[in-house]
Amino acid sequence: MSRRPRKGVAQEPVVNGLRPTITELTEDEATGLDRFALHCPQCGEVSRHRFALLARRAFEEHVDEVHPVVESPLDQIRTLVDLAESTPGTWECELGPETYLVRQRGHDEYEVEVSSRRIVIDAELGTLDDARIVIGGHARVVSSALATAVAVQLRHGSPAGAVPLE
């Protein structure tokens, strides 16, 4: 199948840890007016839609039904920001065009460097999970709500002023 790349389109948003691919079909491949094919990274082509926005919404429904979230917020971030140890005390992660390096500077002390820009992200990092949160936020793959949920999970408690849902 030959597909035309969609011009000037940012990556599709991640839903439950999965990023869909929406491609514009050629006139020969399209069935009627449905010219956008929706692909799930785990299932392949899921459906075709008239508009990219409809495909995006269909993916949200697909993920809710077929790939429900059972992971904790921390597991989601560990999936999104996959650190691989390159040398002892140094981890690497590629997200989009950036490569992030995490270096252990001492006991419970880490720093994150964006290697292509040669800058160090200024943040207090006591664990590799803290580094994952910072990298995910910088690369815009981790929302502030998810980062807050992880912080609460890591503290094993609730924030001040939280109202129980029971």
Share of helix, binned: 25-40%
Uncertain segments are: none
Strand order, main sheet: write it out: 5-6-7-8-9
| Alpha carbon gap, first and last residue | 52 Å
Tally of helical segments:
4
**Beta-strand content bin:** 25-35%
- What is the rounded Rg? 19 Å
Beta-strand segment tally = 9
Average pLDDT = 83
Query: What pattern of helices and strands is seen along the backbone?
Result: EEEEHHEEEEEHH
The largest sheet is: 5 strands, antiparallel
Short characterization:
This protein has 166 residues and is an alpha+beta fold. Helices cover 28% and strands 28% of the residues.
Task: Describe, in plain words, how this protein is organized in 3D.
The chain has 166 residues and is of the alpha+beta class. Helices cover 28% and strands 28% of the residues. It has four helices and nine strands. The chain has helices at residues 52-66, 73-80, 128-138, 144-155, and strands spanning 3-4, 21-25, 36-40, 44-49, 84-87, 90-95, 98-106, 109-114, 119-121. The strands form two sheets. The chain has a five-stranded antiparallel sheet, covered by helices on one side. Helix 2 packs across helix 3. It is elongated. It starts with a strand and ends in an 11-residue tail after the last helix. 17% of the residues are buried. The mean pLDDT is 83.
